[in-house]
Amino acid sequence: MLRQSQATIRDVARLAGVAPATVSRVLNRSGYVSERTRARVEEAIAQLGYVPNRLASSLRFKRTGTIGLVLSDVTNPFWTTVARGVEDAASDHGFNVILCNTDESEQEQERYITVLLQKQVDGILLVPVRSAPKPVEQIQNQGVAVVVLDRRVPNARVDVVRCDSFGGAYRLVRLLLTLGHRRIAALGGPEGVSTADDRVAGYRQALAEVGLDRSAELIFRGPFTQACGYEMAQRALTLEPRPTAIFAANNFIAIGALKALRDAGVRVPEDMAVVTFDDLPEGLVVEPFLTAAAQPAYEMGQQATELLLARLAGRGGPKPQDIVLPTEVIVRRSSGTALARSGA
Amino acid sequence: MLRQSQATIRDVARLAGVAPATVSRVLNRSGYVSERTRARVEEAIAQLGYVPNRLASSLRFKRTGTIGLVLSDVTNPFWTTVARGVEDAASDHGFNVILCNTDESEQEQERYITVLLQKQVDGILLVPVRSAPKPVEQIQNQGVAVVVLDRRVPNARVDVVRCDSFGGAYRLVRLLLTLGHRRIAALGGPEGVSTADDRVAGYRQALAEVGLDRSAELIFRGPFTQACGYEMAQRALTLEPRPTAIFAANNFIAIGALKALRDAGVRVPEDMAVVTFDDLPEGLVVEPFLTAAAQPAYEMGQQATELLLARLAGRGGPKPQDIVLPTEVIVRRSSGTALARSGA
DNA sequence: CTGTTAGCGCGTTCAG
DNA sequence: CTGAACGCGCTAACAG
């Protein structure tokens, strides 16, 4: 507790009158140490407030006990929950997590990956900005473990843990169809991001199954942001005839859309049914209102981390896994009740 | 791009036909290197896909370019926003952030601090679980920079960046008083946490100023959780005569309280006015409803990080700073309008 | 049971 | 302008 700058293992050894290696042995319980010297060493450690330098041991072991988490934006409650799942699982196994927000920028993604590799993280959990396999390969070429989170990467041999975007979207839209809706606008995410593409595909499939052809599709695409949701909803409202329902591809798009509807004086669900991907965490809303396909965000983070750590331990088999977690459609007020037969 | 396990600076040197030191010089642009050898070295680097090992250089420089962020729970949107502010500011300066969730457990806090110190982080941003100075001192004794976030630590000489809990609470309660309320329940946070204590103090001060003495105080205390908010609100409803307003000490307590009120059939604001500390992020709610004292969470994270990094750079003066950011009271529907004079 | 030696990968002397 | 040598702090291997 006395020194300002950190004591080293040599200082401890000197004070205890032993060799550094002996101190190392008591610290790591490796090899035999007599009770007497162990006691002396432990006292010296306490007296100096000695904290072992894990950097040095990492340099030898080639293991840092740190993983990187590269996602788009922790500020989105979905990612927040994922991050918490990751951190909990990592912590359980004695690992730490370095958090990186890309804001869906490929540049930032590249920058973060490089730094993480330089810092010798043991593994990386990556939510890839685009479907290109390059970033994944960049990591793998350094011999670092990587698990892709949330999104598919078609041309890479890599473990993926994600949710069932296609199925969730399909069931949400089917629900709307069952309620009698036939003019359903899809406010989709960005093209080239697998979750966005899969959700649009689910929407299409649902329409096709009830015999609606391509001409019935009302698809908008854009970033997963509130601003874009607002704008896409506005445009949807100008369609003739106007859609009777909206399918939003994620929580932010839904919130933006709801604001647009409110500003346009369109009531939900009376004038417009709304369903969305991503439920808001139970703890954040007093009266849940949105019919949503809830993703098991926490479990996704947790399982991806477990898989990554299993890989680090040399387990998990040779073949890349594609773990798809189920989504659950939760019906609430925003989807409304069966539509009265009218014009369309 | 060929090797699976990482190439070292020696491999690059060998391939380029130079000494490791020369490679180091081209990497860090230190010292003179002829154009020709520089080109050769750079080609070798590219060919091997060489990534410098920052662990090794950190070991020498005693700088890791990493800071630790120890907070209670990223899942709370307030902390999420703080974390984002921290990460952005750190990233701007080339630093990375290790995220640690304590869940307000002193044990976890201790464990995380120890690991962070072992990993030789350059600094720690700490939201202390308790007001005791020990954890702060533990960090300082290792010669590691620390800035305390959000909460005061009375007996420590340490930089603090926080929000004005006392003032925010005071103004919220004053608002209720102005509207005519006299029986106001305070659903406070845990004792011994400065933000909780300060908010209760603000509540008391506001009451005192209108001549209400201790007997008018209706104070509940407990953890900053939704469950506790629910339970405290339930108890508040059993008071005789029943309070006409509730002051919640944070967002989770408020949400729990609102659920309790809903379950009890008590309308807000008609039957009960509600005000709270912590606004929910603008992007998370369609129709903001709660009258709240909004804290500049992002700025808090950002400024704390800037201060920490300034300390690392040897700037910021000798005296610990206590930076208090203002809170802004945002009046919405939940606080209701002026109370009609009735019984109380 | 304990001390000595060597090396993890890098950057910085100091010679040449 | 470039190379050789040393050490950051730790631990595995080898002696004793």
Descriptive overview:
- Two copies of one chain form a homodimer.
- The first copy, chain A, is of the alpha/beta class.
- Chain A folds into three domains: 9-52, 434 Repressor (Amino-terminal Domain); 63-160 and 296-323, Rossmann fold (3-Layer(aba) Sandwich); 165-295 and 329-335, Rossmann fold.
- The first copy, chain A, has twelve helices and twelve strands.
- Chain A has a six-stranded parallel β-sheet with strand order 2-1-3-4-5-11, with helices on both faces. In chain A, strands 7-6-8-9-10-12 form a six-stranded mixed β-sheet, sandwiched between helices.
- The longest helix of chain A is centred in the first third of the chain and has 16 residues, at 77-92.
- The radius of gyration of chain A is 26 Å and the shape is elongated.
- At the A-B interface, helix 4, helix 5, strand 2, helix 6 and helix 11 of A face helix 4, helix 5, strand 2, helix 6 and helix 11 of B.
- Strand 2 (96-101) of chain A pairs antiparallel with strand 2 of chain B, so a sheet runs across the interface.
Topology:
The structure is a homodimer of 344-residue chains.
Chain A: H1 9-16, H2 20-28, H3 35-48, H4 54-61, E1 66-71, H5 77-92, E2 96-101, H6 106-118, E3 123-126, H7 134-141, E4 145-149, E5 159-163, H8 165-178, E6 184-188, H9 194-209, E7 218-221, H10 226-237, E8 245-248, H11 251-263, E9 273-277, E10 291-294, H12 297-312, E11 322-325, E12 328-330
Parallel strand pairs in A: 1-2, 1-3, 3-4, 4-5, 5-11, 6-7, 6-8, 8-9, 9-10
Antiparallel strand pairs in A: 10-12
Helix pairs in contact in A: 1-2, 1-3, 5-12, 8-9, 10-11
Chain A binds a DNA duplex (16 and 16 nucleotides) through helix 2 and helix 4.
